[in-house]
What we know:
The structure holds two protein chains of two kinds. Chain A is of the alpha+beta class. Chain A is built from 15 helices and eleven strands. Chain A has a six-stranded mixed β-sheet, sandwiched between helices. In chain A, a hairpin with a 5-residue loop joins strand 1 and strand 2. The longest helix of chain A has 19 residues. Chain A is globular. In chain A, 52% of the residues are buried. The C terminus of chain A is likely disordered. Chain B has 16 helices and eleven strands. Chain B starts with a strand and ends with a helix. In chain B, the strands form two sheets. A six-stranded mixed β-sheet of chain B has the order 1-2-6-3-5-4, with helices on both faces. A five-stranded mixed β-sheet of chain B has the order 7-11-8-10-9, with helices on both faces. The relative contact order of chain B is 0.16. Chains A and B meet through helix 2, helix 4, strand 9 and helix 12 of A and helix 2, strand 5, helix 4, helix 10 and strand 10 of B.
Amino acid sequence: MKFLHERLDNGLDVIAEVTDSGLSTSVGFFVKTGARDETDELWGVSHFLEHMVFKGTVDLSGDEINRRFDWMGATANAFTSEEDTVYHAAVLPEQQHEVVSLIAQMMRPALREEDFTTEKLVILEEIRMYDDQPPFGADDRCRAAFFGRHPLARSVLGTVESIEALPVEAMRDYHRRRYAPGNIVLAASGAVDFRALVESAKRLCGDWEPQATAARTVPAEPRPPGLVSTIEHITRPAATLEYAVRMSAGPAGDDDDRYAAKLLSVLLGDESGSRLYWSLVDSGEAEHASCQHHDFLDAGFFATQLSCDAEDVKELLARIDEVYAEAAAAGIGRPELEQARNKLAGRVVLGGERPRRRLFGVGLEWAHTNTYRSVADDLRIVENLSLEDIHRVLARWPLHGPSATVLAGPVPADASLAAGSTAQ
Amino acid sequence: MKQTLYSTTLDNGIVLLGEQLPGLESVAIAFHPPAGAVHDGPGRCGLATLSGEMMLRGAGDRSSRQIVEALEGSGVQWSQAVSTSHASFSGAMVARQLPTALPIYADILRRPRLEEDQLENARQMVLQNLAGTEDDPAHRAMSALRQLHYPSPWGMPSEGITADVERIDIETVRAFVAANVRPAGTIIAIAGRIDWDDFVTQAERLFGDWNTGGAEPVRTAARGPRVRHVPHDSQQTHIAVAWSAPPYRADESYEATAALAILGGGSSSRLFSEVRERRGLCYSVSAGYQTLRDCAAAICYSGTSAARAQETLDVMLAEILRLPGTLELAELDRVKARAKSSLVMQQESSAARAGGIARQWYHLGKVRTLGEELARYDRLSIDSIEAWLTANPIRDLSVVSLGREPLEVPLEVSA
């Protein structure tokens, strides 16, 4: 496995992790733009634009793009998050140039008004689809409560109102500003011909005009220590279970403690074999109880998720707090650390075997930090994590400390449960 | 592409399957005893799922917690599931951990404790999962469709029915496990970095003297009505449509799969183009092929806001009925390219291959090589697919809608 990198004159980064035994080639254009780069007027534009990129260029119709992906046998898709918009495809190695060529052309979409109007309907359906599903908007509402005025407060999809109000000109302007070559990484993994990849990039992307892009990080503490916890409630009479999302502060993407935070979340809140699992799920009291650590450029949080019968939610949230407080007070034992570390190491090795999965690890890491870590590097990091690291994270970022909680489910807001604002 | 496949059958009937995948550090193994939901029995829907859960709650010398700690402490990514035909206990791990994992799985299959004091927790877990599926409208629509389309008990939900799960007792679980978790009909599939001879030796040692069980044959009943509306208070209406297709072991299942891929298999498929791209009616729409042992189905799905659901169903039905006589070569070429890619890419995943070879054995009694599969796709032609469509006209559609209002289903398609 080897890593290669070249930067074009206009600033576009081309990177690849080449696996000699790879049977497929994965490529992705990683655009450093997402919900955090939007304003109220542009809320949802990053994700909407991601859809519009598939609707064609001046020379290619949307139908033609779809046909070409299928004709190559490509597994192609895209996603938008708070910080990234990623267009990716996996193909057999002989299709490398074809697929790079197609996605490169798509990066300069026509953004036709007629397509914009039709696709708006699809976006509105996507919003309704997620709104009908657990956790019924509790995740977005919780992120908004947790981040307050920080740009990461914004949900990726936008709202029905913000999407309906968005004009096509605003999207065109956003695309001009955010899809500049210096803001894009072309990444590949698997059976990659790197020389050919760079040649394709030069030919297809070499004439993209460089542009200065605004700095993204905001020096903000989303939830400073000492701040009071909040609870909100979304009422869904038709829901069978109650869903809770809780966010508390955790290490950011530039903090070395983020690795220990991930290990801690496996230990405390993995979907099986964790403290939350044995305390709440094994007994059948909760349908789901988990804790995950998420990090961004300048912020991070632990997200606790719970689903259970509505009448039990209050008691089970309290029990989760007890699990967290107990870990902070009594610490973690060595056998428990070993188990979590072996579990995480197994995931690193197994995930490292799949070029299609490695693409995201390699591409996002470069897009965020301009660095590369091999599977062996990741494994070393996991193996070197100590009890001291875990205990430091527990002390620095108390999981039972101030948090934002949002409940969604059949039961109307309970006054005794709601410590903060209540909204329907 | 060079492929190294192995198979052997132990004296007690257990089938061992293997595939060596060069370049991988991992190995994936899956144990499939024939303890699927089809054996639940009347009034006991969910018995197989509850039994599968109980098997993990203590086996041999290990308690429930010790099983999970032993597997996860060795970095094994484990999972357990129950399908219509089988229970599955699987694990993916770095190859050197296999000798640690195998005896744990042998205990789970052969020596589950099935202790009464675990039953209530296991039952509550199954009931919680059931409650969770109530909140997943797409899942509910598909589940209702399977119940409508397949003759009972083949379409019954493997996750169970609340009222049935609530009254299953420990003796029923023990009897189910004793009868259905048995060597005859069990498939054990392994893929990745394997030493086949060593694996067979270990399997002989752990499972060779296992001789239990004897299930009753499944009694298949008639199927129900073809159209059903499920009231649900949601913004979107979910639409699921099915009609009969040949089971996987029939050679023409390739023609059926290709026809359905043209209809709704990729982003250039007819349903995606007409329903989503051209009209913006929905976010998700698709068609695909789903097979059981003796029967199979063509299945289409879409979810869209209530006000546009009727138009979505109408366009879907029009595209479905338009299929015969209109297939184009360019469409078939794209289907072949997608199938070829996905067959090759499967070889990069030990878990995907362990699942794939087990599935083929269940349906065919053999494992097809990649070369055979690719050659069969190459033999597909517009003529062969059109001939299949002519011999098997699309009719007797099962249609489920789930949402606030029922939809109009034209009588001629579901008569």
